[in-house]
Amino acid sequence: MKKIQMVDLKSQYDKIASTVNASIQEVLDTNTYINGPQVHQFQKDLEIYLDVKHVIPCANGTDALQIAMMGLDLKPGDEVITADFTFAATVEVIALLQLTPVLVDVDVVNMNISIEAIKKAITPKTKAIVPVHLFGRSANMDEIMAIAKEHNLYVIEDNAQAIGANYTFADGTKKKAGVIGHVSSTSFFPSKNLGCYGDGGAIFTNDDALAHKIRGIVNHGMYERYHHDVVGVNSRLDSIQAGVLNAKLPFLNEYNTARRLAASKYNAAFEGNKNIVTPAFDLNGDDHVFHQYVLRILDADRDALMQHLLDKGIPCAIYYPIPLHSQKAYLDVRYKEEDFPVTNQLVKEVIALPMHTELDDEQIKFITDSVLEFLK
């Protein structure tokens, strides 16, 4: 059996090596390492794929989220509601901009931000909601957009883990995750469903004026060289990374389908086990692209299971072991433990198994057999 990887980028690269290499060589031949034609081509192709008016590439996913907020002219002290159960980058940029993060609990079934918790957290100071499409599954955008409209709030989608996922609205129509709110950010970190070979990110919006402002912000506030019209940052996707993304974007749907198929095989193997809660999804649907495959372990020692898997050479991880409201950097007297029952439960139960485009049946069987062996 081939060695099991948490993310097998080498095998993925081997299948498209000639295309990736040619794309990188084009950058080397043209010597246009910043804002070269590869960046502009990727921007156009991703706009078509997402069916969004504006894609603004930038240096990484954290920058993308920060720049999206900068573009909205949020002021110090403005409150921004986001999920407690996610990676720190989401709350980090809120704090960096001297906005007030308001962390709320998540839903126990889909692990995305709780609609009821959002409603309870809104105050006269609330200006924005940041739903995180966690682990590759879309948050409840019908409800979130309705709340935002009612209270005149911005919606900034954190789409770092769900590029390519479709959200199906209550009326049956679909849109890609990341193009529903007022603005969105994503990451092209190598392990993402669409990843480059370094850092990279992008901002999406259908708002022409906002897109124009953001294009200046990512480039030192310049629209014309040495004319600084807005306060900006230096955050540009380099041409080599754009070349890699150009090579991989045509395969994104195929990659996401492979992830859903692997998830379905995991789910089938675990079906009926009283100690395991598997992620619910429709194999024929497309709302979940499984950036991570995350189980909940009930009435069993999750940490001992993790060690059992590691001892067998099976990589695994806990996303996320400490709630954001308990992190030293984000402690706040406003937060009460009773406000986060689901998050506090999930951090004790979740475990992520290997998930990538190259998982084969032999590997999946060895992984699932090893989990079940521990839980028997």
From TrEMBL:
In this protein, the active site sits at: 192
Q: Which Pfam families match?
A: DegT_DnrJ_EryC1
What InterPro entries does the annotation carry?
DegT/StrS_aminotransferase (IPR000653), PyrdxlP-dep_Trfase (IPR015424), PyrdxlP-dep_Trfase_major (IPR015421), PyrdxlP-dep_Trfase_small (IPR015422)
The UniProt GO MF terms for this protein read: pyridoxal phosphate binding; transaminase activity
Q: Which residues carry this modification: N6-(pyridoxal phosphate)lysine?
A: 192
Keywords attached to this Swiss-Prot or TrEMBL record, sorted alphabetically, are: Pyridoxal phosphate
Single Gene Ontology BP annotation: polysaccharide biosynthetic process
- Family that this chain belongs to: Belongs to the DegT/DnrJ/EryC1 family.
Q: What protein is this chain from?
A: dTDP-4-amino-4,6-dideoxygalactose transaminase
Species for this entry: Flavobacterium aquicola
